[in-house]
Fold this sequence. Notes:
Oligomer: single chain
CATH class: Mainly Alpha
CATH architecture: Orthogonal Bundle
Strand order of the largest sheet: 1-2-10-7-3
Number of helices: 18
Amino acid sequence: MTELPKTPSRIAASLCDPLSYAEAHGLHNDFTWLRAHLPVSRAEVSGFDPFWVVTKHADIAEISRQNALFHNGDRATTLTDAGADAFVRKLTGTPHLVRSLVQMDAPDHPKYRSLTQQWFTNQSVRKLEERIRGIARAQVKSMIEHGGECDFVRDVAVMYPLHVIMEILGVPREDEGRMLMLTQQLFGSQDPELNRSRQVILDMAEMVKQLQAVVADFSEYFRKLTESRRAQPRDDVATVIANAQIDGRPISDWEAMGYYIIIAAAGHDTTSSSTCGAMWALCEQPGELEKLRANPSLIPGLVEEAFRWTVPVQHFMRTAMEDYTLRGVPIAKGDWLMLCYLSGNRDEEVFDAPFTFRSDRSPNKHISFGTGAHACLGQHLARLEMRILFEELIPQLKSVQLTGEPRRSASTFVGGPKTLPMRYVLN
């Protein structure tokens, strides 16, 4: 029997450690080594079921395109230890705390996706450009009023896409703070500065209990919104979800709540992270700001490079439904695979000088939005929001620089900058 390629134990443990993602430099070094020596390897970490570590851009895309062969729903869709997995299964009867588009496979996935897809097409979001530009100008004005120094995460990037997606969803402005807090608790569940208890959580099952409470708070809010939209429908996504039917029957309460949560949370958090990633890069590479000021037509390139550079969704898990051979490595039916987007977006075979941020990078075949049937529903909105913000902001900025050490959130799943202290000189 051929010996399976094994992820070095130190690297395997690092992939399961949220702090590795906060200190991303070391993890990037590990991924670089894996791409060169063990592009597909089997990680065995105490407390976790074994999983395959997939690090190459082409392999991640190959798996992502084959949705019938590699499922989202049969096992946990994000890296979860055995204790937490058992707790969730006991709680819900499934591997998932929520069931959103992310946890669905065909035939459910295309049916549920089609409910709101029309709201997020390129053509549909472009109709929002004037309204989004008004929100962007207000955020830039607020930044200017800070007087040349701010934390870009807290003072600019977090609130901007939050305003946009909450308008589309139908959540009133006065409830946005609550949505932001719950989102940070959801995606920052492994980070002691963001999670619900504001403590270091060593036990993943305890983390799941906190997540359960976050989901319950989201659900309580959205049940009330559902009742309101059924009584008085409006032109918003909440009305679509509240009154949705699949195959002639109303969707379940559980699936409705999952739908609300994925749009309410992922609909702004990943965009704000990429916006911060772009500004972080401009602070560290002042020549990029000069290029953009001289040639604003590069701003869409800045946006794409920010998605590649920041990689807010750092991994997803897939489950093999049949035996499969990947890069000569035998994957068995039922095996769990970790698609490492952080690694794929630095693949030397795809990106020239992958550790250099370049607004003029072309082509830019990043995989931050995924590939195949599960490609991000909101990617056109995210691109539009970021382009508009930087079109409004770049002409105002003469120079930018860091005033302290930016920090990323400690999270294996969704992460990005959580502080970005900076100073800026205005025109």
